[in-house]
Design brief:
globular
Length: 271
């Protein structure tokens, strides 16, 4: 069923940012394919076709991208929205837990990109939009593994963009701040909790829960993603919402000592 409309493939589209992005792209004239690990549990979305996909599985990624290409004849936009969170001190988090996090947040993005790029190169056009975070450029105590995964996405995407531009393709970054999703509740907790970090971990957990509750609506992030997908001259980075914009300015202009003190103050850390 080839289509003349641009086709957007959105991972993690069953909830949160991915869901709102799929709906916003459909409203903007895209044929939208959303993915979920279990499509039987996904409520229907207007204008969105769902396919099963686990970004942490090579064979699943290959099959899903092949299905989209065969059904629709093109892939114009890839939005890598699937992701998982992780809370807890670095020492409390096993390498096995970190590897599982990276398998979705980093290697899952790379799997999707490597499968989609041949289709985009053949078309001589396409946009790859990777969802980073303000934690892709800010530190966050008690979320070191998650911040590392988003820092990795920043470096990967910026480098990728230079590689694919000659082929009519752009790789772009969207940076949300705290967003009203199930992020905090669904984040992995440390698998080797240590008493030495317990009090401060709980304090940061409460701060994160409050920040997410008072954060931007997922529609704010979806709007930034649609802009990245449709702008005639796209920017490499799009901040989503005023908080993300302020955070990026703070990181860029604040003296190192001032910035360091602000991070500690925000997270109720002594000194």
């Amino acid at each position: 069923m080839a289509t003349n409309r641009p086709v957007a493939l959105v991972t993690g589209a069953s909830s949160g940012i991915g869901k709102e992005t799929a709906l916003a792209l459909a409203a903007s004239g895209f044929t939208v394919v959303g993915t979920s690990r279990d499509t039987s549990r996904v409520a229907p979305l207007d204008g969105v076709t769902f396919v099963g996909l686990d970004v942490a599985e090579d064979t699943s990624v290959t099959a899903a991208v092949q299905e989209v290409s065969e059904r629709f004849g093109r892939i114009d936009v890839l939005v890598n929205s699937a992701g998982v969170g992780s809370m807890g001190a670095s020492e409390e988090t096993s390498l096995e837990q970190v590897q599982a996090l990276f398998d979705t947040n980093v290697f899952g993005v790379m799997r999707m990109v490597n499968e989609v790029l041949p289709h985009m190169r053949a078309q001589r056009r396409g946009r790859i939009i990777n969802i980073s975070s303000v934690l892709g450029f800010l530190p966050q105590p008690y979320m070191a593994a998650y911040a590392a995964s988003k820092h990795a996405i920043e470096g990967y995407t910026e480098s990728l963009d230079h590689e694919v531009r000659d082929h009519g393709i752009r790789a772009l970054i969207v940076q949300p701040a705290y967003t009203r999703t199930g992020f905090e509740a669904n984040s992995a907790k440390p698998d080797i909790p240590l008493h030495a970090y317990a009090k401060q971990r709980l304090a940061v957990d409460r701060l994160m829960a409050d920040a997410v509750r008072d954060g931007d609506a997922p529609t704010v992030v979806a709007k930034a993603i649609v802009a990245a997908a449709t702008d005639a001259k796209p920017k490499l980075r799009y901040t989503a919402g005023p908080m993300a914009g302020r955070a990026r300015i703070l990181r860029r202009v604040a003296p190192a000592q001032v910035f360091d003190k602000q991070i500690r103050k925000m997270n109720q850390l002594a000194g």
